[in-house]
Amino acid sequence: MGVIQRQGIKNSLVNYFATGLGFIATVFIYPFDLEAKGLIDFLMNLGVLFIPYAQLGVFAVYYKYFSKFTDRIGSFQRWIVTRLLAQFSIFVLVYFLLLGSLSDFLSFAGIDKSGNFDVYSPYIPLVIFCVLLQGFLVMLSVTNHRIVIPDLIRNIIQKIYFPLIIVLKFTFNLSTEIFIILFFLYYFITIPLLFWYVLKNKFIQIKNSKPIVFLESEKKEIRSYNGFSLLNDISTQLSFKLDSVMVASLINLTQTGIYGIMFYMSNVLSTATGSILNITNPIVSKKMADNDIEGVSVLYKKSSITLLIFGLGVFFCLWFLIHDILSLTKYSEQLLVGKYVFLYLAIAKIFDMATSINSFILIYSKYYRYNLVFVGILGVCNIFLNLALIPKYGIEGAAIASLVALVFYNVLKLFFILIKLKIHPFSIDTLKVLAIGSISFAILFFIPEGKYVGNAYLNLGLKGIIVVGTVGITFALPIYILNISQEINGLVNKALSKLKILK
Fold first, then answer.
1. What domain range is 27 assigned to?
2. Cα-to-chain-centroid distance, residue 334
3. How far apart are CA 361 and CA 413, in angstroms?
4. Is 443 a member of any domain?
5. Among candidate residues 404, 405, 441, 433, the one with its CA nearest the CA of residue 318
6. Residue 461, domain member (yes or no)
7. Does the structure show a pLDDT above 80 at 334?
8. Most buried among 94, 238, 289, 399, using CB within 10 Å?
9. HSE value, Cβ hemisphere, 13 Å, CA-based, for 316
10. Is residue 398 assigned to a domain?
11. Are 33 and 166 within 8 A, CB to CB?
12. What is the 3-state secondary structure (H, E, C) of 47-78?
């Protein structure tokens, strides 16, 4: 866990800072123009939703095989870039040829009742290109065990820039066309910076490289894995990004904005997850390639317990402060409707965190094809549950759909890995965390609701101290004393040592 811990901790600090900026934007800025917030979410999610069709599984191929071609990495990277450019060009051509038919189908099927896809569809190829380029540059960094700076570039700038353009929109009453131009400027800022980082650290070695020559066995293996990865990527995006798109399509952009805010708040739980998983990805790939199942099992359990502790701790704080947080917003009553959206999404997040790296284990094992089956089941469940629940329950229906589908998906993977590889992420420490968490949650219910002082900001500050303090004493402290997570204890001890509290 050395590399994971160092990069994970650094990246977590970056992400928590970004989360703080996001919180400020969520409370004070986004509520002023929920439709503009909804448009940002809609465009970004549509871009991500279509990206599998543009890159056709190439990213997954690079993640899996980069370590195999270290002696030919420049040539392998050249092949990857050539594939991406060719595939994206074909995608754009096919996209515009079929655009009219796609719009008609979505309208006919009742998936685009609001007409938002029809209005904004011409911008989608540019969004996809930007997301594709960003993803490629980040991939080069991740496979070199460097994610801190790329995340700093992407997350911090995003958390500053998007609130800024929303302020500009409602201050100067900017047209939708101007707002969309400003939206794309985010990518035109971040992509050159990512290029600079990749070139500076020599993560890409295409210059003077020769075209790669694959062995016949390599060609066959890559083609097989590429086909699987494509289908897996499509199913994954349909599963994890479809809810926001369907809210926009079945209801409106304002509701999409509210859903996006609640989705963001639930994502605060997993701030540390992305950091750990990004670094863990290539390490799991290497251990599975070496058939080090015992090493994977250790990583599985450590990641699970650490992420579960983080997830529960942050959830307790947010859930018992959500009324006070949202009361600071301009449209608090409108946003409080989405309170249970946050609850359902948060539960889904916690369960996903507790199962930690099960997707990586499957993808990098000889059973990788089965992951497609599970993701496909998730995608189908998500589509039908959203179609059934959104018209009836609105954005709460979308959140319930995500919760049910995600829990079912992870349960399937857990049992499959247990049967095939004889490993699982749980231990006696998991029960300890759940027991301590249950007691802490019960104690938090005794904290009185309502206003302690007249000023909303002072009230949030006072109640925040009480809630966070209670979580610290009833949840974090027992976990530290019992040394349930060596990684968390090591981090705390290091911090205390620097503060000269612990020698």
1. 2-426
2. 26
3. 10
4. no
5. 441
6. no
7. no
8. 399
9. 28
10. yes
11. yes
12. HHHHHHHHHCCHHHHHHHHCCCCHHHHHHHHH
